[in-house]
């Protein structure tokens, strides 16, 4: 699939960053996550590939500190997709290797030159020491 230049540039940037990055298109479909994200998410991107919001927002089993499930609409990246604004939250996931990880996530929208919404990015990191 062909993506807008802004999406392509965000993907290139993600490949150069030392922090995990997760990128979606405007519909919320996961289109990429970088190598650093693979360690926290528990699988290589080559193994998961692209996936719709309904899958990625639940497959990692996001939960609060008491183990209660976090609804997809309460996740920073989904909120960015819905409202086209940046968001931040710290929560837990059960990654694809079965390991519980505490992560902090900051998401932001990707806007095109004509101020059109093109997708969103989530930067996240292991925050077990926080």
Protein architecture, described:
This protein has 130 residues and is an alpha+beta fold. The protein has helices at 5-16, 35-41, 45-48, 53-59, 76-83; strands spanning 21-25, 30-33, 87-94, 100-111, 117-126. It is built from five helices and five strands. Strands 2-1-5-4-3 form a five-stranded antiparallel β-sheet, with helices on both faces. The longest helix is centred in the first third of the chain and has 12 residues, at 5-16. The termini are far apart. The model has no long low-confidence stretch (mean pLDDT 93).
Could you outline the blueprint of secondary structure elements for this entry?
Layout: H1 5-16, E1 21-25, E2 30-33, H2 35-41, H3 45-48, H4 53-59, H5 76-83, E3 87-94, E4 100-111, E5 117-126
Antiparallel strand pairs: 1-2, 1-5, 3-4, 4-5
Q: Helix coverage percent of residues?
A: 25-40%
Shape: globular
Physical arrangement of strands within the biggest beta sheet = 2-1-5-4-3
What is the residue-averaged pLDDT?
93
Reported for the largest beta sheet, the result is: 5 strands, antiparallel
Instruction: Tell me the number of strands.
Output: 5
Rg over C-alpha atoms, rounded to the nearest angstrom: 14 Å
- The secondary structure category is alpha+beta
Strand percentage: 25-35%
Element-level helix/strand string? HEEHHHHEEE
Through-space gap between termini: 39 Å
Helices, by number, come to 5
Report the uncertain regions: none
Using brief descriptors, characterize the structure shown.
130 residues; alpha+beta; 5 helices
């Amino acid at each position: 699939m062909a993506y807008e230049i802004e999406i392509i540039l965000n993907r290139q940037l993600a490949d150069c960053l030392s922090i995990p990055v997760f990128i979606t298109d405007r519909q919320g479909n996961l289109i990429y996550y970088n190598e650093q994200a693979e360690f926290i998410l528990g699988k290589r991107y080559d193994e998961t590939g692209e996936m719709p919001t309904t899958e990625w927002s639940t497959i990692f089993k996001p939960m609060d500190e008491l183990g209660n499930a976090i609804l997809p609409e309460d996740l920073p990246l989904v909120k960015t997709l819905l409202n086209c604004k940046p968001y931040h939250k710290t929560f837990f996931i059960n990654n694809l290797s079965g390991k519980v990880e505490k992560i902090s996530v900051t998401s932001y929208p990707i806007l095109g030159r004509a101020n059109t919404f093109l997708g969103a990015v989530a930067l996240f990191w292991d925050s077990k020491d926080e």
